[in-house]
Every structure is written in structure tokens, then in C-alpha cells.
Amino acid sequence: MERNFVRKRVLLIFTGLVFVLLVARLFHIQIVDGSYKQAASNNTLRYEVLYPPRGEVFDRNGEYIIQSKEAYDLMVVPRDVIKGFDTVLLCRIVDVTLPLMRSRLERARNHSLRQPSVVVPQLSKEIKLLLDELHLPGFHTVYRTVRSYPRKIAGNLLGYVNEVNATDLARDDYYRAGDYIGRTGIEHAYENYLRGEKGVKINMVDVGGVVQGAWHDGRLDTQAVAGRSLTASLDAGLQAFAEELLGGKVGAVVAIEPATGEILVMASGPTYDPDELVGRERGTNYTRLVNDNRRPLFNRAVQSHQPPGSTFKIVNALIGLEEGVLKPNYRYECYGGYTSGRVHMGCHDHFSPLNLNQAIMTSCNAYFCYVLRNIMDKADNGGGASRGGYDHWAGHVRSFGFGRKLDSDFTGESAGNIYGADHYNRTYRGSWNSLTVISLAIGQGEILTSPLQMANFAATVANRGHYYIPHVIKSIEGAGMDPKFSEPHYTDIAAEHFESVIEGMWMAANTEGGTVRSMGMVPGLDICGKTGTAQNPHGQDHSVFMGFAPRNDPKIAIYVYVENGGFGASAAVPVGSLLIEKYLTDTVTRPYLIDYLRQRRISYPNYDNNNSTASL
């Protein structure tokens, strides 16, 4: 009995305490804290996303190459829009047709009646101020930034930004509908650094959607954090000059600083003005660029792959020296080419016999046919290329970075192609030898390389046997670079073998009779180079040049590929040597070469439906 009485007393005391606490809380809410009453009277809170300015990009000399400028998106909350508002006036202010406006408003209603949706993106500050004066219920503007390109260069390399799609939203919960994302190039590769961090502003709005003030005086707001700025390795002035020299051409130029792997130039032709893919005309411009037969959106510098032609003779020379089947003083005869049985590889006129330096200087085809066969046959101890000699050769080739992606810091990189012996075993059913693949001696056949890989090879030769992974960003604001870009990668060719081929490349550019000299010699710069003429079954051969300068302590390595350009000295050498001179001296002493390039004409049957010609 007494125990039941105690229990009742405890229960009554507990119930009383709960009642007192509830009364005190109600008193605080209704009398002391007026925010709830204010929120109820104002009816709703609006969470406004604060978009950060996207990080800007500078070139290696501190010049802007990508800037962010102020813009505003017009948003709508469909349930707050009043009937009968002046739609025509709104259309006139934002320069949108009435049918398009109605379509976008309907799309917003279908998306959500309560959540804001973009109606018109990327408006100027002047238009934003006009809209603020109208106080249209249900409409408000949100601060954004849009990209601007002061130099109008490197469209393929820099990339572009556009609105996220369903795949982006599913892949990364950072994004919401209406956000923007880097789609290609640097904008894509460094998206996580450039995008910054979004903030949130909580506003109180009345039943008409008019902002009444900040919720809790803004104490619960979070500020946006601007994206990090990037410093690119690109030289903006040199890039602009490269694009000028590529004007009217189909091809690519890549230049690298050998000591660091930093990319100085990455030009693809034809290119486009990156400002064309910004703003409200982006869609129209994008469609036009996509439908262009010459594919200006295709970054040939990293995405294309072609036979490297005679520039690849340097690879075979180095492998021959490493394998001991070639010495710099070895001489081979060339009387119009190389002949073995029914196989004949033609060559141009030059003196004979030649040693290694002379063979590089004159680009003798026959010499390197002897070298390739000696490499493959020696590695198999006479057993034939199909039983190991080819794969031994291919292993050396891959050590230069061919046949795979280089793991650079931009997207779309081509791996090129270096087949294994199994490919030829299947093709020839095991019955083949070094003579079957003799075209590999001069960079033809099944070999495919990208301009980036060949520029990296030029840097590897300049460094006497090692390279750094090519990269286009050299520093990130407030963050370190990936250490992989500062680690040297060594080929399996001993360093002492490089001096012999470098001597031949120097002779090609500085000695009478050298294939580079007539269009590429610049007194005092010690340019080392190698021409190439890559065979093209669809038209005129492609013009190729690979080189670096100066010979000792090289500052720039370069590769130029001009489709349908003819001999290497005809188109690629003038482009390459002018860029080397401009970079090393900041001057051009041969303006006549610029005029020469402008006056030459090249036919592009691959791209022109009417087989017309384009100015080179």
C-alpha cells in the first residue's frame, strides 16, 4: 500500500516537471523569441545557393589566359509567380522570345513548384539591376561567373564549361541541376580545383516571394569559397604565334621544356575562339563547330595518331647502338634505296656510302633498313623476327613512352600503337621475319604516335635518355602538384649513345645538304632537328619536324605535324624553326618564312567535300 503511494507521488512530480518545461518553452517561443512568429507571418524560407567564382588560369609569365567575369542567372519559383505578370516586358529585357520564355516557365513548373529553376542564364549586371527594379514576384537573380579568354587562344587545350547533365548529377553529389562543370581540357582535368565550394544564403520571403531579410541575421549562412587559380606552363605569346603559323592548316604543334616536362605550346589546327563556347550563343556555335568537316573541337595534339615517318629513324638508331649492331662509323650504301629479294624501299638522291651521322643528316631510308634488320635478327640469334626479335625491338620502343598513354594532366590522350609480335603471327600465320616489317625502319607501317608522344621523344633525346611526364599546369594555388611530374623516367638506352644521334640531328640543321638546313637553320641557336615525310594514301604526304635547341642545355623540344604538307622541310620545318627562334630570342629574323607559309597552298581531300584547297 505504502509502495503504491510512493509510486503515485513520483509520477505526479515527473508529470508536473514536464508540464512546467513545456509551458516555459512555449513562453520562450511566443514571447521571448519572435523569429518563429516572424517566420510564420512571412510564410517561407528561401535557400539561395551562393556560387563561387571559378578559379582563373595564368600562363607561365603571369598573363591571364582564362578569367571569370560577373554574370547572373534569372531564377523562378513557379508557385510564387502571379498570374497576368507582364511576360512581354520580361522577354524584352532579357532578350528571349515569348514562346521560348513560356516553354522555360512550363519546364520549371514541371520540375518543381517550390524549388527555383533557371529561366535565363548568364545575364549582365545591367539587366540584373533592371530586373531588381521590377520586383517581379517569383523571379530573382543569382550571382554566377562566366569564362572569358583575353588571348582567344588554345581553345582545345583550355576546354570549355557547360551545364551538368544527368550523368554528372549521378556521379558527384556536389552538383545540382543548373550547375556548370568543366567539360574538356584544363577545365575538365582540374575541375575539382577550379569549381570552388558553394555557399548558402537563407532569406525570408513573403507570400509574394519578395525577400524580407536574412534568416537569423545571416548567422546560419555559409559563404562560397572561390576556386583555386592555376598557373599553366603555357607561354601565351608563343601559343598565339604557333596558332598563327598553323592558320589554314590541319595539324598540330607541341613544344616542351625538356628539363621539366612543362608544355610550352599545344596547338591544334584548325582551332576555335574559346569565347565562342561561352554565353547564350554557345549552343549555336557548338553545333557549327561539331559539323565542321575539319573537326576544330578535336585536339590533334593529343588525340590524333599517325605514322611518325622518318623522325622515327632516331629511335631505331638508338636501339641499334644499344644492341651493339650499330656503331657511329658503320657505313651502308644507298643507290636509290634498299633492296632485298622482291622487297624494295626507295630513297631520295644523296651521296653514298654514309655513316650514322650522315644518314641522319640526309634521312637515308636504306641505312635504317639495314639497322632495323640487324636489331631484330640479332635479338633472335638468327631465328627470325617472329620468334622474339620483334618483341625485343618493341620493348625498347615502348621505353620511350610509345604505345601507351604518358599519364599527362589532360584528358583524351591517345596511346598510339606499337603492336606485339602476336599481331604479326596472326596476320602472317607465323610465317614472317624482319623483312616483312621493314617499313618500321622509317616510321611507317603499323606504327602510330601522337604529336604529344613525339614531342616527348624530342625532349627525351635532348635530355640524353630521360623525360618528365608532359604536363600543362605547373602550380595550383594553395596545393601541391602531383609528384609524378617531377620524377624522371629513363629509357633502356644508355646515355652515351645519344650524342651520336644528336650530332646527326645538329648536322641536319647546320650542315650543307642537311634536310633541315634550308628552312630551319638559325645561326647561333644550335638547333638539332630531324625531318619526316609520312606517307598518306589519301593525298599528299604529311610534313613532319622534330627538334630541340640549343644542343647543350636545351630549353625547348618541339614536334610539328602538318597534314598533306609534303616534305618535312616544306611546311613543318619552317613552323618549328620559327617557334624555336621566337622562344629563345623573342624575335623573328626570317619574316619571309611567315609569308612563304601563308602563300603556299595545300589540298585537303580528307576534309573538303569538293576537294578544294586551303591557304597554308
- The CATH topology name of the largest domain reads Beta-lactamase
What's the total number of strands?
22
Sheet with most strands? 6 strands, mixed
* Percent of residues in helices: 25-40%
Number of domains: 2
The global form is elongated
CA-atom Rg in angstroms: 33 Å
Q: Which regions contain 5 or more consecutive residues with pLDDT less than 50? A: 38-42, 609-616
Quickly give the CATH architecture of the largest domain.
3-Layer(aba) Sandwich
Derived from helix and strand composition plus strand pairing, the structural class reads: alpha+beta
Mean pLDDT: 88
Which strand-content bin applies to the residues?
15-25%
Q: What's the CATH H-level homologous superfamily of the largest domain? A: DD-peptidase/beta-lactamase superfamily
Distance between the termini: 111 Å
In CATH's first tier, which class of the largest domain applies?
A: Alpha Beta
Helix run count:
22
Keywords:
single chain, 616 residues, alpha+beta, Penicillin-binding protein 2a (Domain 2), Beta-lactamase, 2 domains, six-stranded mixed sheet, 22 helices
Give the topology, please.
Layout: H1 2-32, H2 35-42, E1 44-50, E2 57-58, E3 64-76, H3 87-94, H4 98-111, E4 117-123, H5 125-134, E5 139-148, H6 155-158, E6 161-163, H7 166-171, E7 180-182, H8 185-189, H9 191-194, E8 199-205, E9 211-214, E10 230-232, H10 236-245, E11 251-257, E12 262-269, H11 282-290, H12 300-303, H13 313-323, E13 337-340, E14 343-346, H14 356-362, H15 365-379, H16 389-398, H17 421-428, H18 451-462, E15 466-467, E16 473-476, E17 489-490, H19 498-510, H20 517-520, E18 528-534, E19 542-549, E20 556-562, H21 572-585, H22 591-599, E21 601-603, E22 613-615
